[in-house]
What we know:
Blueprint: E1 7-8, E2 15-17, E3 44-45, E4 50-51, H1 52-62, H2 76-79
Antiparallel strand pairs: 1-2, 3-4
Amino acid sequence: MLEDQPYQCPCCDFYSLPSRGGFEVCPVCYWEDDGQDMDRLDEESGPNHITLRAARMNFERIGASDASAVSLVASPGERAGLRREQRATYH
């Protein structure tokens, strides 16, 4: 089971990361945290091979940062207790 942790994932906005920029993989959306954040939405992330904007849109649409990660992310039940502060991404 997932536990609430102190750092917000830049992709899914859940507080699911034990640190920021340490290349931890978010269990909620499967984004590898390379330190990129909302100020660099359209810059391709090296480890993720996608822009943060595209990954955020994917999460809202399919529940994962990328279609290949859908089977790897936490279930809605597992993430139910996690805090989320959704930030707007304007297209």
